[in-house]
């Protein structure tokens, strides 16, 4: 009997209760959405797998199991190492040409920051209204609101500086909503636009020279370091990646950043994020409220961007398709691809991808700057 008991105790299932089983089922659902529905599988599949292995307790593979593999992977998030590295890779993939050619598209990116402000204010007020969740500080509210940027690295960086205790749940929410862009945004986009607006064909963007792009990267870097130094880490890495790409003399670096390094970081971040989603951490009132606030933030960011795009449509006499307003949030490049997909559903001659890249890169820069301001004003 002793040998049988010893053998049986080795099965991890024996350490699982109902909460862990619920989390495993959620992980399997996310994996299904990634594999069968192809909802951003590069993000959602690693997150789902991390969630799966973290909720089998005897495996020791959650982000909190000291000495385990995922514990050390997660250090890259907790210490703020992965976010700037991801920004470096994103910079090498980003074309700032559409933003430079059409500076007014930055207004859409500005509108996309609405979700950050709404969710941050809501979090702070809920902490005063609902006794069960306890008071929420301005630092915590700012970190929660940043989920609305739909920018995982920026959300991680802000939470690590302002609310380290909320870092796991904020990270889960930020990356989950990024992965679920195809589910969340289309209903909002259709509800706020008319069929006539969705069919608007936009003129091709103006040509932008390499010199202009290089000057832009250098100017934004210097401006950020002078005026919003707390955002310097993220913005400077974004611009370094872009400078490497646009210089035309570092092709090996560009290929590495766009492919190999970004792929490795995506796996490390995805699994590490998923492995924070243990039943103990997720299935409680505070976490559920934060995840709901994250959805509110993401939704209002989308709404803000679309409303600004509709305003530009009126001002320009119908030359701006409001569908690009969803790119007011920073989920690069998922939101731009969604603009293109929906635009072609209503008019096959629609080519909105590059037009949507203007707002999304503006939002990427804007959310990093806003994070820097939050850290400057609310940091300890």
What percent of residues are in strands? under 5%
Q: Percentage of helical residues? A: over 70%
Number of helices: 20
Number of strands: 0
Structural class: mainly alpha
Domain module tally: 1
Give the overall silhouette: globular
Are there runs of 5+ residues with pLDDT below 50, and where?
A: 7-12
Order of helices and strands: HHHHHHHHHHHHHHHHHHHH
Largest β-sheet summary: none
The whole-angstrom Rg is 21 Å
Q: Quick check: average pLDDT?
A: 88
Tell me the quaternary state.
Answer: single chain
Cα(first) to Cα(last) distance is: 57 Å
Supply the key terms.
71% helix; mainly alpha; 380 residues; globular; 0% strand; single chain
In brief, what are we looking at here?
This protein is mostly helical and 380 residues long. It has helices spanning 2-8, 18-35, 41-54, 69-78, 82-93, 97-101, 105-111, 114-129, 138-145, 152-162, 167-179, 181-192, 195-198, 210-227, 232-247, 251-274, 279-282, 285-315, 334-346, 353-378. The chain has one domain (17-56, 63-378).
């Amino acid at each position: 009997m002793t040998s049988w008991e010893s053998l049986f105790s080795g099965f991890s299932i024996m350490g699982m209760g109902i909460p862990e089983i619920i989390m495993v089922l959620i992980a399997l659902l996310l994996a299904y959405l990634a594999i069968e529905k192809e909802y951003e599988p590069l993000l959602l599949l690693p997150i789902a797998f991390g969630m799966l292995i973290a909720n089998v307790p005897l495996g020791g593979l959650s982000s909190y199991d000291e000495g385990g593999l995922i514990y050390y992977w997660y250090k890259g998030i907790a210490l703020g190492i992965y976010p700037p590295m991801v920004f470096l890779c994103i910079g090498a993939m980003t074309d700032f040409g559409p933003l430079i050619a059409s500076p007014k598209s930055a207004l859409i990116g500005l509108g996309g920051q609405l979700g950050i402000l709404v969710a941050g204010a809501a979090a702070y007020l809920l902490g005063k209204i609902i006794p069960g969740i306890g008071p929420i500080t301005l630092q915590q509210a700012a970190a929660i609101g940043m989920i609305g940027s739909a920018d995982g690295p920026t959300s991680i960086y802000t939470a690590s500086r302002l609310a380290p205790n909320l870092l796991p749940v904020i990270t889960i929410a930020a990356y989950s909503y990024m992965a679920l862009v195809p589910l969340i945004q289309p209903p909002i986009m259709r509800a706020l636009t008319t069929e006539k607006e969705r069919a608007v064909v936009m003129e091709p963007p103006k040509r932008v020279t390499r010199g202009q792009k290089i000057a832009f990267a250098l100017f934004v870097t210097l401006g950020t370091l002078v005026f919003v130094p707390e955002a310097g880490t993220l913005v400077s890495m974004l611009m370094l990646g872009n400078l490497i790409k646009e210089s035309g003399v570092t092709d090996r670096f560009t290929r590495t950043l766009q492919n190999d390094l970004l792929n490795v970081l995506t796996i490390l971040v995805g699994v590490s994020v998923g492995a924070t989603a243990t039943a103990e951490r997720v299935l409680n009132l505070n976490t559920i409220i934060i995840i709901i606030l994250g959805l509110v933030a993401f939704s209002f960011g989308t709404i803000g961007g679309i409303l600004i795009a509709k305003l530009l449509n009126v001002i320009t006499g119908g030359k701006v398709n409001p569908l690009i307003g969803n790119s007011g949030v920073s989920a690069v490049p998922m939101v731009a691809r969604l603009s293109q997909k929906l635009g072609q559903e209503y008019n096959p001659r629609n080519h909105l991808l590059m037009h949507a890249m203007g707002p999304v890169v503006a939002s990427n820069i804007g959310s990093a700057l806003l994070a820097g301001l939050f850290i400057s004003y609310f940091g300890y």
